[in-house]
Amino acid sequence: YSLDVKEALRLLSVSLSKPSLPETLWKDVLLDRFVDLDVIVANRFATEPDEPQSFLIGEHQLEIRRPKVVLRVSTHGEWILAFRTYERAINFAFKYRRDELETYANYIQDLFASWHPSLHLKIINYDRAARNLIAQSHSLLFSDTQRLRACENAHLSAGGVFSVSGPSQRPDPRGKDKRSSKRPENSDICRNYNNGRCERGRDCRYKHACLGCKGTTHVVKDC
């Protein structure tokens, strides 16, 4: 496809069997580049087509895209929806990669099954990092899950570089932790806490309180 991606996209545009996928992502699929699953979710039930508006200025054509409301993959179900859509597109373009993608999908599904739902966002972020790593390497396949362990540890292990909330502190020689158990005061209320996704607990810099009444015994959905 890289020899003439424009012609490949033209043929794709008239194909009657191509799977559903936002038009802006097909070029990334054909060139085996990173594909943003957030775009798939955001366009799943969009009221407007994912196509640019074209303007002819002299001999030059200018394409402008109107900004859309951003919707990100944030749950296990949304990830399945987005990844399966992506998987169908890849299998349509590269029919020999079916087993490779199925191996990766099962691997991520096992992670979702073994982690508490409150931590599923970590898995979603890891998947994004893993697919980005695969896109950057010509020798790494989706099925090479063992070679993804370092990336997995960075995002999912307790001591991973993307899991630790801040720099570790040396223990107090008097036997007390220098960090106060009291949550730092801040007038801003934590939105992640109200959505059930705050992972910082007492270390959170924002106030854990209801967004509605500002009470500290419940979240906004229970107000």
From TrEMBL:
A zinc finger (C3H1-type) spans 184-211. Residues 184-211 form the C3H1-type domain. Signal peptide: none annotated. PROSITE patterns: ZF_C3H1 (PS50103). The keyword Zinc applies. Keywords: Metal-binding, Zinc, Zinc-finger. The keyword Membrane does not apply. Residues 162-188 are annotated as: Disordered. GO terms for molecular function: zinc ion binding. Gene3D superfamilies: 3.30.1370.210. This is C3H1-type domain-containing protein. It comes from Mycena pura. The lineage of its organism: Eukaryota, Fungi, Dikarya, Basidiomycota, Agaricomycotina.
